[in-house]
Description:
Distance between the termini: 127 Å
Main location: membrane
GO molecular function, one term: mechanosensitive monoatomic ion channel activity
Strand content: 15-25%
CATH architecture of the largest domain: 2-Layer Sandwich
Number of helices: 11
Helix content: 40-55%
Domain Mechanosensitive ion channel MscS: 100-170
Radius of gyration: 35 Å
Order of helices and strands: HHHHHHEEEEEEHHEEHHEEH
Number of strands: 10
Largest sheet: 5 strands, antiparallel
Protein name: Mechanosensitive ion channel
Number of domains: 3
Shape: elongated
Oligomer: single chain
GO cellular component, one term: membrane
Amino acid sequence: MDKFNAVIDFLMTYKLVFTALILLVMGLARSFLLRLIRGDVSFLSEDQRKWMSRTKNGMFASTLLVLFVLWQSEINQFALSVTAIAVAIVVASKEIILCLTGSIQRASSRSFRVGDWIEVGQLSGEVIDHNMMATVIQEIDLLHGQYHYTGKTATLPNSMFFTYPVKNLNFMKRYVFHNFNIIVPHFVNLYPLLPDLYLRINEHFSHFIDVARRYNSMIEKHAGVDLPSAEPHIDIGSAGAGEQSVHFMIFCPTEKANEFEQKIRQDFMELFTLAYPTLCEKTALTPPSDEVVVDDVKETEKKKPVKQTPNQGPLATKMRYYMTSLLRR
């Protein structure tokens, strides 16, 4: 017992040694727990990422608490001594304070958690870790409608949560409202194509449409809003230069969105070719800019450059003018 008290007195006397020992023990415990959670798998699951994030944050908070208790008397004396320069300290550490308060705001509002898809400003991705200072996401290409990982990891300081709105895209992980357009430069009646186009799209969606309807209904109940139905939607409008724009909105599995888009584009082009074969043939045989089409007969009118003789051109004209003026004088 006397030896134990002697060790405690020694550690309390030499607090720097005690602090280093605490950091070493906490670091070893953190590494052991993270290895235990990770196991031997090559790819982390969503639950593993959640527990790893909780372990990191828990060990960090525990370390801060123990060190605060150990250095409490010194911290009180330091706080009294820096009262006069408190304003300068706040200004210098503004970003750190914003990151800490951003972490509190995220935790209190429960805007997202590990595994959610979020969008902050121009960045979007899946949350793989977060702590009191920053949030780490695996970037996803939503800007081009690809819905796949780019391989880039972005670290967002928590202060961004006060500058940019945080959009939770978690419902897009399984199903997504995918939008795309097809521009038709010819002003023709496209409405007769819609019934056959709907039939082909429904054939593509036949194996998952029931699941899509249930998932759509679940999202409506959870969000408390009336979303568009899970059925495909086709609208015909005008583009900026006067062309016709066919807008498609489909509710489909996220990983299959681009595949279905390509199939629908192919279906539309096939139906358009069948409905307007002559127009498609003319478009395929459109001559270059230096050719003219008159009564469906292609007459090539090459734009030949005009050769100028030495006595022609602006320079020769000026020279003749000056010579004539000199002779008159």
